[in-house]
UniProtKB/TrEMBL annotation:
It catalyses: guanosine(15) in tRNA + 7-cyano-7-carbaguanine = 7-cyano-7-carbaguanosine(15) in tRNA + guanine. This is tRNA-guanine(15) transglycosylase. SUPFAM superfamilies: Pre-PUA domain (SSF88802), tRNA-guanine transglycosylase (SSF51713). Substrate binds at D125, A193. It holds the Pfam family TGT. Residues 14-335 form the tRNA-guanine(15) transglycosylase-like domain. Belongs to the archaeosine tRNA-ribosyltransferase family. PANTHER family: QUEUINE TRNA-RIBOSYLTRANSFERASE. Its cofactor is Zn(2+). Zn(2+) binds at C276, C278, C281. The keyword tRNA processing applies. The keyword Glycosyltransferase applies. One of its GO terms (molecular function) is pentosyltransferase activity.
């Protein structure tokens, strides 16, 4: 029952794909809601009716449960939970991270997951807290890697095993772990121990942890971001190349009276309107929801519906090539998310290598757009542009007829030859009035063009307002206005 992952569409490092385990298949990106057998606020069968294709539960809880252990062993996990879709089981590592120890071995927890019919088994990795000293992180990582090797040796290469990637906040260790996991042949690779970062809004550090792990992992691996469950950060995570998420946030937040939106969380006690189109919000007023006897269950339904809708929105944006727009929109909902977005853009040259060549559009949404992969992709092509002996770069000024070749300044990309003006991404770009950031980036592209054509005579035709700026930036150039 090997794990197979097929990529159908790509944008940035995000993928729309199909994850197949045995006879179970789910679309990715996907959320696996966490289900506790003792507390099923939304029964798994009802989750399936909402479009949930897979879920995750805790094998350690099952193994210690007087109510469910023997039933799971005799009837199987899918029968006990009443769910026919994909079921992944955690090994007990979550309890290990919370309580410091568990009374189960690596071999025992994997064997139990196999025996109850789990679709994806997780070895007993060590989820080291991000703020742990490096020496401890290295020691814990060694234990984790040894347990992954043991799992492969005991259960074989065809076993549906997950290969968790640890390494704390140390990029070199995350990259090393990712490479090691892929070398061991794992096709399903959770990135672990990031929940403390998510809980404290440390999205910049999240990006600096995930990107090195991704760099080490095989590009064919399906990547699971352990414990990520709030829709506001899904787009950012998918842009890094994460395919699977899991969380109990839909239920935990409902228990606390918290109402999830794509950009954050509200307190139902303080709300006067329900700004959502789900069945719960369209059949209740805010006051009715607050006073409903089953308020927790209704809130959980809403929270899960909103989360699922965001997953669908992300899949659509990948297929359309507009994931950057969604990342930009979501990451402006909170300053710490914006930190994460800007950290992601520092990796744009790496992301460009996996990004698609053509997209539906390029919308300029501020300074951050200047560092997007589309701009990098065009400017990397600039040295291949060969100019005629006398060329004109139009910057909003008049167009004399005596020039052999005419280019147009298209911020933030640079000077674009007529032949390329309708190609991606320039032909699909929409920008507001030129600002300093986009002009600075465009002029950098012009400098690269002039450097690669040193024997050409280039003239700028600009508006009076722009002419002085061009003269200062290119003091040896001819400027007409």
């Amino acid at each position: 029952m090997s794990i197979q992952f097929e990529v159908m569409h790509k944008d940035i490092a995000g993928r729309v794909g199909r994850l197949t385990v045995g006879n179970k298949r789910i679309r990715t990106p996907a959320l696996l809601p966490v289900v506790n057998p003792h507390i099923q606020i939304i029964p798994p069968a009802e989750m399936a009716a909402m479009g949930i294709e897979g879920l995750i539960t805790n094998a350690y809880i099952f193994s210690k449960s007087a109510d469910f252990r023997e039933e799971a062993l005799s009837r199987g996990l899918h029968s006990v939970l009443g769910f026919d879709g994909l079921i992944m089981t955690d090994s007990g590592s979550f309890q290990l991270s919370v309580y410091g120890s568990v009374d189960i071995t690596n071999e025992a927890t994997i064997s139990f997951q196999r025996d109850i019919g789990s679709d994806i088994w997780v070895p007993l990795d060590i989820p080291t807290h991000p703020d742990t000293p490096r020496e401890t992180v290295e020691a814990d990582l060694t234990v984790t890697m040894n347990r992954l090797r043991e799992a492969k040796e005991l259960f074989g290469d065809d076993a549906p095993l997950a290969g968790p990637v640890q390494g704390g906040l140390h990029p070199d260790l995350r990259k090393k772990a990712g490479r090691g996991v892929s070398e061991l042949g794992f096709a399903f690779c959770p990135i672990g121990a990031v929940v403390p970062l998510l809980e404290s809004y440390r999205y910049k550090e999240l990006v600096s942890s995930v990107m090195p792990a991704k760099e080490g992992l095989s590009s064919a691996a399906c990547v699971h971001l352990f414990g990520a469950g709030h829709p506001s950060m899904f787009a950012l995570a998918v842009a890094m190349g994460c395919d699977i998420f899991d969380s109990a946030a839909y239920a935990l937040y409902a228990r606390e009276g918290r109402y999830i939106t794509p950009s954050g969380t509200l307190k139902i006690a303080e709300m006067s309107e329900l700004p959502c189109a789900c069945s719960v919000c369209r059949s209740h007023t805010a006051e009715e929801l607050r006073s409903a006897p089953d308020k927790e269950r209704l809130l959980a339904y809403h929270n899960l519906a909103v989360t699922q809708a965001e997953i669908s929105r992300i899949r659509l944006s990948i297929q359309e090539g507009t994931l950057w727009d969604l990342v930009d929109e979501r990451c402006r909902a909170h300053p710490r998310l914006l930190d994460g977005y800007r950290e992601l853009l520092k990796n744009a040259s790496v992301l460009e290598q996996s990004d698609r060549a053509t997209k539906r559009r390029f919308f300029y949404r501020g300074d951050e757009s200047c560092r997007r992969t589309e701009v990098i992709k065009f400017q990397q092509m600039i040295p291949r542009i060969q100019l005629s002996a006398r060329s004109l770069i139009l910057c909003g000024g008049p167009r004399p007829q005596e020039f052999e070749e005419v280019l147009e300044l298209r911020p933030p990309f640079g000077a674009v030859p007529t032949e390329l003006s309708e190609t991606a991404p320039m032909g699909q770009s929409e920008v507001p009035e030129w600002d300093d950031a986009m002009l600075t980036t465009a002029f950098a592209g012009v400098e690269a063009l002039l450097s690669s054509n040193p024997d050409c005579e280039v003239t700028f035709s600009a508006t009076p307002e722009l002419a002085d700026l061009i003269r200062r930036r290119f003091p040896d150039a001819t400027v007409i206005s």
